[in-house]
Specification:
By secondary structure, this protein is an alpha/beta fold. The chain has a 6-stranded mixed beta sheet. It starts with a helix and ends in a 7-residue tail after the last helix.
């Protein structure tokens, strides 16, 4: 057998065998929660919604990844020096729900705050900086999440965008778009 042909077969076999295990590592549910207001009540609502969704899906044996994206005035909720909810965030992240929750902080907002305040803006250790919060939310479409107001459910005052696959599957074919 030709050595090049043998290598091609091996590569395809490895890719075929690894494919299902790689897909199994992806969460079956992805939820993005927008926090764009400096309001502890709304942030606590977003955190409660995240914990409730994690508990719901894990109790069914399904995986979930929740991402809270903070930008604009909402970035104050992830600031080390101003966050009134940082202790609750630390408690959640250190709990069994922690690995299923990601906190994303908008770098654009952070830079604008630094420019306005004249000093570096420290973020809590649990936050991950993303280039742009709104772009992070809209790019969730590419990762299987919904992004437009029409596609999102309103929970309290924070729009919670969930994957459309399960909701669209439940709709009659005539209403799918």
């Amino acid at each position: 057998m030709n050595p090049i042909f043998r290598r091609v077969i091996i590569v395809f076999a490895v890719a075929f065998l690894a494919g299902p295990s790689l897909a199994a590592d992806r969460p079956s549910h992805r939820i993005a929660i927008q926090v764009s207001q400096n309001d502890p009540g709304r942030m606590n609502l977003a955190l409660s919604n995240a914990q409730n969704a994690i508990k719901y899906y894990t109790s069914k044996g399904e995986s979930v990844q929740i991402e809270i994206v903070a930008y604009g005035p909402g970035l104050n909720m992830l600031r080390e020096d101003t966050s009134p909810v940082k202790d609750r965030i630390k408690q959640i992240k250190s709990s069994k729900d922690g690995p299923d929750l990601r906190l994303s902080a908008c770098h654009n907002t952070q830079m604008n705050m630094e420019k306005a305040e004249g000093h570096p803006i420290p973020l809590i250790a649990e936050a991950t900086v993303v280039p742009a919060g709104v772009v992070r939310l809209t790019s969730s479409r590419k990762r299987g999440g919904a992004t437009s107001a029409r596609e999102c459910d309103e929970i309290g005052s924070a729009p919670v965008c969930t994957g459309l696959r399960s909701r669209l599957a439940a709709r009659p074919a005539a209403k799918r778009r």
